[in-house]
Design a protein that fits this description.
Layout (H helix, E strand, L loop, with lengths): L1 H20 L2 E4 L2 E4 L3 H10 L1 H23 L1 H14 L13 E7 L5 E6 L2 E6 L5 E8 L7 E6 L9 E3 L8 E7 L3 E4 L3 E3 L4 E6 L5 E9 L4 H6 L10 E3 L3 E4 L5 E6 L6 E10 L2 E2 L6 E6 L3 H16 L1 H21 L2 H8 L20 H7 L1
Parallel strand pairs: 3-9, 11-19
Antiparallel strand pairs: 1-2, 3-6, 4-5, 4-7, 7-8, 10-12, 12-16, 13-14, 13-15, 13-17, 17-18, 17-19
Helix pairs in contact: 1-3
Keywords: Membrane, Transmembrane, Transmembrane helix
């Protein structure tokens, strides 16, 4: 850039010098000299200070160009620029604050959130379920932080809260095992339905399920055992169910539905001989068949409840229409109003009397 500016100034200086010394005009491909030698000298003496200044500037520019090209500093700068052009350098600087690194495992491609007092951060796990919060700033004082995981289907895991960690030096925390995520396709099932539980967790790990029958919430069993002794337990434990997640972290489990019960269950993952915290506890209801009628009636009631005012207005209108139909449009009423003559209606009276023989009957007998 400096070299181009010097050339521009030198060109301007040379052009000005030629105009002052050799003023000429080009006309019809020939040069016509109009100024005499005396006029040239007079003009040169008039602009002599300016010409001298331009000459000094030209000399200084030439010396600066030579010094810039052949100086060792320029060669070092050029060499450094050539070296750094082929590579990339990452510079990190922190003054007066410490950092922490937290890592763990969850389902693949899950969104892991870290929240606490003075800490808010997010990261995404890789295809093996590994996640890491690398070189993050520590809070000013030890605070509790909690981790949550959202899998690829939007299901949230139970939070995992970490105890306060040191903030006066750099620390590395892990591995943190996130609990699996669980879901049913619906809340209520009926006897004989196929109940399938699905979820996601750490890939290629064993998943254990703890299942309980909640007798206290079962209405039918509660009525039968209300006055029994001893009192029924809050929950009856099932044998543990175990399944294994695939390479993508997916797993599923079938639950029997032969009896009307209410199940409560949660899951835990085993990874590298360590067990994860338990997942969210889910409730599933297995209802008898006759509950279909009750649910249908409840559904109708919910519809009427949201439109109760409209239902009352329609009921009143229907009653008014029926009244007018029975009062003024009944067929007997119409015939009664259209009759030409009316007579009173008398009941038929039957009286006993003797049979008197007439002459016609005596003639027949004679």
């Amino acid at each position: 850039m400096i070299f181009e500016l010097d050339l521009l100034f030198d060109f301007c200086h040379l052009s000005l010098f030629l105009i002052l010394v050799f003023p000429e005009k080009i006309c019809n491909n020939r040069i016509v000299v109009k100024k005499s030698i005396t006029q040239v000298l007079d003009r040169g003496l008039k602009y002599l200070p300016f010409i001298g200044a331009c000459s000094v500037f030209f000399l200084f520019s030439a010396l600066s160009i030579v010094a810039f090209i052949f100086s060792p500093l320029q060669r070092e700068i050029l060499g450094a620029s050539q070296k750094t052009a082929s590579g990339s350098t990452t510079v990190s600087l922190s003054i007066g604050i410490y950092r922490f690194t937290l890592f763990g495992y969850t389902s693949p491609e899950a969104l892991v959130s870290l929240q606490g007092m003075g800490i808010v951060d997010e990261t995404i796990a890789n295809s093996q379920g590994y996640f890491e919060f690398n070189n993050r700033f520590s809070p000013f004082s030890p605070r509790e932080a909690c981790l949550t995981s959202r899998d690829q289907f939007g299901r949230l895991s139970a939070p995992v809260c970490l105890p306060p960690f040191p903030t006066r030096y750099d620390v590395r925390i892990g591995p943190v095992l996130m609990p699996p995520t669980l879901s049913f396709d619906k809340n209520d099932y009926f006897m004989g339905d196929e109940i399938v539980l699905s979820g996601q967790g750490i890939p290629n790990t064993d998943v254990d399920f703890s299942v309980f029958i909640d007798d206290k919430q079962s209405f039918v069993k509660y009525l039968t055992k209300l006055f029994s002794f001893p009192k029924p337990a809050y929950a009856l434990t099932f044998p543990k169910f175990t399944t294994e997640s695939d390479a993508d972290g997916n797993f599923s489990l079938s639950i029997p539905s032969s009896n009307p019960d209410i199940y409560r269950l949660f899951a835990q993952s085993f990874f590298q001989k360590e067990i994860s915290p338990k997942s969210n506890t889910l409730n599933v209801k297995i209802l008898p068949i006759w509950m279909l009628i009750i649910k249908f009636l409840l559904f109708l009631f919910s519809l009427l409840k949201s439109h109760l005012l409209e239902f009352l207005i329609l009921t009143q209108l229907f009653g008014i229409v029926v009244y007018f139909l029975r009062r003024y449009l009944k067929p007997y009423v119409i015939a009664h109003t259209r009759a030409l003559a009316l007579r009173a209606h008398y009941e038929l009276l039957l009286k006993e009397h003797a049979i008197i023989p007439s002459r016609y009957s005596s003639q027949l007998t004679g």
